[in-house]
Amino acid sequence: MKRRKWDSETKARVVLDGLLNGQVSDVCRQYDIRPGQYYKWRDYFLKHSARVFEGPPRSPDMAALAAENEKLKRLVGELTLELNQKGNT
């Protein structure tokens, strides 16, 4: 028997179908999978589902760049004010 490859979208659809309908045996029959496989996918799905609500990962370099960017924006603002004040005198 040849093993099938399931893509992540299909696995999610199968798990959600089982969670929403509550009839795991029917879902397994429909997708031709064993209940053990379904429960393995379901457990993985539930364990990692909180990641959906996390923001995109920021590397330390990105955080440093964002801080530097804010610092430079403040400096440009201060210099602009200073130039405007000198121009008005």
From TrEMBL:
<dbReference type="InterPro" id="IPR036388">
    <property type="entry name" value="WH-like_DNA-bd_sf"/>
</dbReference>
<dbReference type="GO" id="GO:0006313">
    <property type="term" value="P:DNA transposition"/>
</dbReference>
<dbReference type="InterPro" id="IPR002514">
    <property type="entry name" value="Transposase_8"/>
</dbReference>
<dbReference type="GO" id="GO:0004803">
    <property type="term" value="F:transposase activity"/>
</dbReference>
<dbReference type="GO" id="GO:0043565">
    <property type="term" value="F:sequence-specific DNA binding"/>
</dbReference>
<protein>
    <submittedName>
        <fullName>Transposase</fullName>
    </submittedName>
</protein>
<dbReference type="InterPro" id="IPR010921">
    <property type="entry name" value="Trp_repressor/repl_initiator"/>
</dbReference>
<dbReference type="Pfam" id="PF01527">
    <property type="entry name" value="HTH_Tnp_1"/>
</dbReference>
